[in-house]
Specification:
alpha+beta; 3-stranded antiparallel beta sheet; globular
Length: about 80
């Protein structure tokens, strides 16, 4: 994870040691989050589907951030098979 200010990048990997991109998981999580009405990962190519760029507006509320993080957590849990 890396970021500055409100801009945050999260990279999904198959395992932490090998750092192989988890593109299928990223696509599934992005789709699930979109179904929950949060656009957390809009990418034009599958090659970047494992990277989530979170860039809320400057006037984002704490409630909106909490909602987005809850949806991301739920999508990750459901899509990774840990549900």
């Amino acid at each position: 994870m890396r970021g500055r200010g409100l801009l945050l990048g999260i990279e999904l990997v198959e395992d932490r040691a090998g750092k192989e991109p988890a593109r299928d998981l990223g696509m599934a999580v992005g789709k699930r989050a979109l179904e929950a009405r949060r656009c957390l990962n809009i990418v034009s190519r599958r090659t970047h589907a494992h990277i989530f760029r979170i860039a809320p507006p400057l006037n984002v509320s704490r409630a909106e951030i909490d909602s987005a993080l809850a949806i991301l957590d739920q999508a990750l849990t459901e899509c990774s098979g840990r549900a």
